[in-house]
Amino acid sequence: MQSQLIPLIIGISVVSLAVAGWLARWVLAKDTGTKEMQAISDAIKEGAEAFLRRQNRTIIVLATALAAVIFLLYGFVRGHHEFDPVDSRLAMAFWITFSFVLGAACSVIAGYVGMWVSIRTNIRTASAARTSLNDALRIALRGGAVSGLFVVAMSLLGVGGLYTIVQYFTRVPPGKIPLLIVGYGFGASFVALFAQLGGGIYTKAADVGADLVGKVEAGIPEDDPRNPAVIADLVGDNVGDCAGRGADLFESTAAENIGAMILGATLAMLAEKASMPFSAGIVGVMLFPLVARAFGLLAAIVGILMVKTTEDGDPMAALNRGYAVTAILAIAGFGVSTHWLLANPAAPNAWWMFFLCGVIGVLTSWAFVWITQYYTEYRYRPVREIAQASLTGPATNIISGIAIGLECTLLPTLTISVAILSSYKLGGAAIAHGGLFGTAVATMGMLGTAAYILAMDTFGPITDNAGGIVEMSGQPEEIRKKTDRLDSVGNTTKALTKGYAIGSAALAAFLLFSAYMDEVRLYLGAEEGSKVFQSVDIAKPEIFVGGLLGAMLVFFFSALAIKAVGRAAQAVIEDVRAQFREKPGIMEGTEKPDYARCVDLVTASALRQMVLPGIVAVGAPIAVGLVFRMFIHDGDRTIAAEAVAAMLMVGTIAGILMATFLNNGGGAWDNAKKFIETGEFVVDGRIVGKRSEAHKAAVVGDTVGDPFKDTAGPSLHVLIKLLATITLVLAPLFL
User: Fold this and answer.
1) Rounded CA gap, 401 and 405, in Å?
2) Using alpha carbons only, what angle is made at residue 456 by residues 453 and 462, rounded to the nearest 5 degrees?
3) What is the pTM of this model?
4) 191 closest CA partner among 610, 539, 596
5) Exposed (0-12), middle (13-18) or buried (19+): which is 32, by Cβ within 10 Å?
6) How many domains is the chain built from?
7) CA 419, CA 340: separation in Å to the nearest integer?
8) Which residues constitute the domain of residue 504?
9) Inside any domain, residue 532
10) HSE of 77 in the Cβ direction (CA atoms, 13 Å)?
11) What digits encode the pLDDT tens for the residues 132-168?
12) How far apart are CA 423 and CA 438, in angstroms?
């Protein structure tokens, strides 16, 4: 079975990379517009690449230091355990560290490739908008699809390739291989955290600074070339929403694959012990997540290639049609995978039940897309309420935005609850001990459309940049109207991806928590039926404290991320004001602002500010586990592992709610401002539009929401999964 599945997984991954390469060439062959447009695009490209080079150098230094710590902990602090897949602790240390380094390297590459293509697609989208809305839409989506396909294919190729390497060199039983490659997900999570933090701080510091001085103080349009921070703002869209989100979804797919493999191997081994083996054996069940994800890649390719619209059509409707095609094909792929790999002669309905779990996952992703659209599009009540509140000033705008952000936690929570409970019950009905694997299959279903979702996410910064290029190069108003339509859709797709990321993080966290519990039980040598480490007892004071620390970490981390944006934005505001004072001709159009100075300032500030929250996020669960193990154990050999489990789960619950509040609240503030700017907001027969007092209030609200939705919120998705991957990698150290 392995000889069939591994080549299939790697083959589909390679095909997807080839399609991504073809799409990149197709995009790069398009027209690059006028010399004025090219000059602006080149400035964006130069700033984005300079930032990412400096950020990656910082990440590599931090990752190298952490890899050394992991090797020392496994090789010299922790003793050898009889359940270890390899026969020496140094060998264990080598494979865990090697998988961590490989995961970190792949995550860096995936993020860079996505951004590399996006900063070359923006100019081509802007140029196409001069003649055709459909051409501009297709170029922007296909440019984003390069990132989506590359990220998901790289995660599959990485896990499948690492699995093959480990088995070839160690010859360990297949069921134990996931315990040696858990570091891959940790490495990807580590890079994703800093990529999302650094990019988020950069993009929002530049955005807030540009908006407050440009729009509010100087009264100039959003992408006016007279604003010294405008290039930094356009650079930020790429480093935050392309490189950062690419790394985020890369680690999502990698970590969840490994967690599901651990649960699949455990279920298959228990089934064999009970004389109810799966037809495909332990290997088939364990590799099922990779096969299902591979079929999802093929579904995304078809969905992406089908997207098109007319000149008077709705671009969002075209993207939604492509998503519907992707979701339907992903469900079909799940049906094939479950029938092939999860069939069990002793439980003939098992594959069908697991297939329904996958369908639940796909429907959950669809529900999150719809919920996020409802709370962030100005066609619906929440955004219009904020716009209405803006009529009476910034204070009421902010009050209304916070209320909407708090309100929007209800529907996502109900959706996640239904998904977890229904998939758990279906998995349990499929086969004994199958409940947890049912939730894993639902998570695989939700992530089955990840490549298309990431393509829609990268579509956002591409169209935002295209609008900026059109504005700054002085193109006619009708062209700007086309790019504004695409930009408005791009804002929605970016918000959708954040909602999708929250949902996937919630399901994935439950999956990885279950994998952590399984791993600890295996290391404790607990036999089936034993009550050792079957649950986490929050009534124990040590465990309660662990959970309390997990909730606190979410709030403290969010505070650090938001404050980092505030400090970096202050530097931008001071520089923009200084340039207006130093060069009075800027506002008259006789002098050019120093864009490079502002870009360099934001880069240095963002990289400084990202280090502290990143270190806190990585260090907190390690510190809790080791402190409880060494000083607060009272002879209980599982107390530290149980305290870390409580920290993981309570932190996950708090993180899901906080991220939902920050993402949707910030997105609603942003689109309330854009709703006023469209000229469609009519009060008592008069249009309330740009430069009105309501618009100024909405701009203030938007600047409050910016660090919420583009820095702290997205970083919390990564924090939730980072907590899970850290505990999974370091579980043996807590015993």
Assistant:
1) 6
2) 145
3) 0.85
4) 610
5) middle
6) 1
7) 24
8) 2-526+538-734
9) no
10) 15
11) 999 999 999 999 999 889 988 988 998 889 988 998 8
12) 5
